[in-house]
Amino acid sequence: MADTARDAPPEQTDFHELEDGEELFPEPATTQESQPASLAAEDISTNSNGPKQDSLFDDDPEDLFAEATEEVSLDSPERDVLLSDGPSPAITPITPPTSVITPRIGHTHDDMFTHSSFDEIEEEEGGDSFDIHISVSDPEKVGDGMNAYMAYKVTTKTSMSLFKRSEFAVKRRFSDFLGLHSKLASKYLHIGYIVPPAPEKSIVGMTKVKVGKEDQSSNEFVEKRRSALERYLMRTVKHPILLKDPDVLQFLESSELPRAVSTQALSSAGLLRMVNKAADAVNKMTIKMNESDAWFEEKQQHFENLDVQLRKLHTSVESLVCHRKELSVNTAQFAKSAAMLGNSEDHTALSRALSQLAEVEEKIDQLHQDQANADFYLFSELLGDYVRLLTAVKGVFDHRMKTWQKWQDSQMLLQKKREAEAKLQFTNKPDKLQQAKDEIKELEGKVQQGERDFEQISKTIRKEVSRFEKERVKDFKTIIIKYLESLVQTQQQVNKNISYIFHYN
Amino acid sequence: QRKESLRSVSVDLNHDASLLIDIPDALCERDKVKFTVHTKTTLSSFQKPDFSVPRQHEDFIWLHDTLVETEDYAGLIIPPAPPKPDFDSPREKMHKLGEGEATMTKEEYTKMKQELEAEYLAVFKKTVQVHEIFLQRLSSHPVLSKDRNFQIFLEYDQDLSVRRKNAKEMFGGFFKNMVKSADEVLISGVKEVDDFFEQEKTFLLDYYSKIKDSTAKAEKMTRAHKNIADDYIHISATLNSLAADDMTANKKNLEKLSDLFEKFRKVEGRVASDQDLKLTELLRYYMRDIQAAKDLLYRRARALADYENSNKALDKARLKSKDIPQAEEHQRQCLQKFDKLSESGKKELTSFKGRRVVAFRKNFIEMAELEIKHAKNSVTLLQGCIELLKSN
């Protein structure tokens, strides 16, 4: 190489003219002593059936979040008693009516449903260990044009005696899932069970798929939906009551399923639903309930706060996903640019180094893309699911209020009828008097029923909330650990790829 | 330590004890930055051995322009002028932060504000160093270090703005504009006689557009890293709020997670700033240096054009038998100028390549080592948190 232009030669410490054949990146003095840690074997790519949820279903006896220790400080002492085995003893909710009524076991709604009582079922939980895994896979477009739809394969693997076989699969479409949810909601929400909400409809997303656009965004949409459907089913079957519901069993097992038409967004049933929702909202505003049970007030406040925080967190994580995707794209663009720069560079060693840099950055951009997927499918969707679940939780609290209102209404009506009857006593109208007496008898029954309903729903909600909180904590912990492990893997791979530069040749 | 990182864009500076220059501090007053230029010298041409003067960015530009317009230096690569201090980005972000204050917790807002103040400080440090390097390139150059205007810049303890105005009137900035717009055309148009310069021309023209592109892409990459670090701040803050509301055994987990993201975002921030200094700033600096090299080629091309024109004029004079001695003298001068430019230019361009290779090498290695370090730190942090969550 030619000599330098300056008269005084600089200190030779750093300045070392590279011969053309020499490498730009020698083995550095500070090579890592240990090899990069072995890569986590777990595959969290979205090609698998969503986050592996096996570990979610172990009944972990060592779990610190076991019922006994949870929330002891906040709750009334009766609470512990609710969760023990054996028939529930008398509860004394402190509600306006003065009488204390022992809720009869298995008394409610036998006329509407074919399954056995709720309380008995919950005791069963200890016996038949909870072992079921559902996967949603193989999305397949069926039909053409605007009548086309996606069919998903729903595979169940289980050892529970509840099912006829230990492994079976069926084909379902999105409206089937919505139909299932609709049935479960109508059966269980108003008596206090937290029914997991179904994934949201998306007219835009589906239209793209129907129209036949086989591009990145419609593939992402299908994958997002597939994953959401899987999580939905798993959450549903994790609920001990819902698992045994005949509609759920039919959904999982039977090869033919009657088409759920009333789930269409713009159908008459859909419109009716919207109207009902609006009416509910108005009603909620006008119900002024005398809450004498502090537990419910506290819980409602707790869920309000939780909702606000989770939404905020969800927004931040969505932003993270967006920026991570940007980083991936920008890294890829930089890699291309560096490769071009390397081609243009006339110094051989530097040219090779730039090419190596470009190669490494290209691998790293793929890592960022994978990480963005983990950010989304593990962290973001978890938060999104819980934001939606909290809506269902708030819903059951609202139903309790409505139940209370109904009971109060019956009571007021009974009061009026009694007053009317008293007046009738002084008139000489035996027919009317008898009619009044009959009506009063009927109303007294209604009032009693109303009170029982209210107590039942309150009891159910307490159990549900406890189950929900336990699940929530477990869920978060498991998925967050998975998410952190994904971050670890990304960092280790980045490390590996960059170190590669030093071991070139 | 930060000083080291940027100075590595040009590793062979400030070693000659006869003239040592640095910018030990600077003041930021609204938009104006006031640099303190400090000189230590053993040269007798200076009045004192150790002295400082205050200078503004415009003074540096004046110095650069006078050097560019000095005929004698036409054959040298004039070190690129430092870019104007640009605080727009952090200022805009600070403004947005102020608007969004209501949506964050106090703690979150404080952290974001601290981050922005750090960003502001980083821009400030970068601008100080890039101005410093400009002066150090001059002081390390055997010819440029002796320039009279350079000495005035270093020594003159009055305000330079008067001199700046005079210079503007003399040259009117015309020359500079011409250079910038015409160089590509002229360089490609000229018929090159020398293989070396032919290759350099092709190389520099192509390399300039590529490195300009790489600089822009690297900057976008760095910015995305920074955005991710900011997201972690929000995530950490919200987790903290969740922890505060949580009365169960889960509280500790949430706190640990919040803490993890807080530490993690600091690492991400460092990844972003290391990449910024060692990659983006490196590319940006050499992009400007390549432009300076192109300017040299342009001046030489103009000298060649002048020489060819003088030949034509001489032929014409011989034809008309008029003013032949003047034409001959003019032609001789043009040739002399052209030869001088070519000889000097060759030396400058060769050493430039060497400088570039060394700087790239140093920075790439440092960047890779730092990224590995950060990745390892991240893994340690993450695994620590995972262990804690699992054991709880």
Shape of chain B: elongated
- Please write the string of helix (H) and strand (E) elements of chain A: HHEEEHHHHHHHHH
Q: Beta-strand percentage of chain A?
A: 5-15%
Q: Quote the CATH topology of the domain at 292-504 in chain A.
A: Substrate Binding Domain Of Dnak, Chain:A, Domain 2
Neighbour order of strands in the largest sheet of chain A? 1-2-3
The main sheet of chain B comes to: 3 strands, antiparallel
Measured on Cα atoms, how large is the radius of gyration of chain A?
Answer: 32 Å
The CATH superfamily name of the domain at 292-504 in chain A is Arfaptin homology (AH) domain/BAR domain
Structure, explained:
The complex is a heterodimer of chains A (505) and B (392). With 505 residues, chain A is mainly alpha-helical. Chain A has a domain at 292-504: Arfaptin homology (AH) domain/BAR domain (Substrate Binding Domain Of Dnak, Chain:A, Domain 2, Up-down Bundle), CATH 1.20.1270.60. In chain A, 58% of the residues lie in helices and 6% in strands. In chain A, strands 1-2-3 form a 3-stranded antiparallel β-sheet. In chain A, a hairpin with a 6-residue loop joins strand 1 (132-142) and strand 2 (149-158). In chain A, helix 4 packs across helix 5 (216-238) and helix 9 (294-344) packs antiparallel against helix 10. The relative contact order of chain A is 0.13. Chain B is mostly helical and 392 residues long. Chain B has a domain at 208-391: Up-down Bundle (Substrate Binding Domain Of Dnak, Chain:A, Domain 2), CATH 1.20.1270.60. Residues 1-5 of chain B have low confidence and may be disordered. Chain B: Residues 1-160 form the PX domain. Chain B: One of its GO terms (molecular function) is dynactin binding. Chain B: This is Sorting nexin.
Topology diagram in text:
The complex is a heterodimer of chains A (505) and B (392).
Chain A: H1 78-82, H2 118-124, E1 132-142, E2 149-158, E3 167-173, H3 174-188, H4 203-211, H5 216-238, H6 240-243, H7 246-253, H8 268-286, H9 294-344, H10 348-425, H11 430-502
Antiparallel strand pairs in A: 1-2, 2-3
Helix pairs in contact in A: 4-5, 9-10, 10-11
Chain B: H1 2-7, E1 19-29, E2 32-41, E3 50-56, H2 57-68, H3 88-99, H4 106-140, H5 148-155, H6 161-171, H7 174-189, H8 195-245, H9 250-320, H10 324-391
Antiparallel strand pairs in B: 1-2, 2-3
Helix pairs in contact in B: 2-6, 3-4, 4-8, 7-9, 8-9, 9-10
Domain PX (chain B): 1-160
GO molecular function (chain B): dynactin binding; phosphatidylinositol binding
Protein name (chain B): Sorting nexin
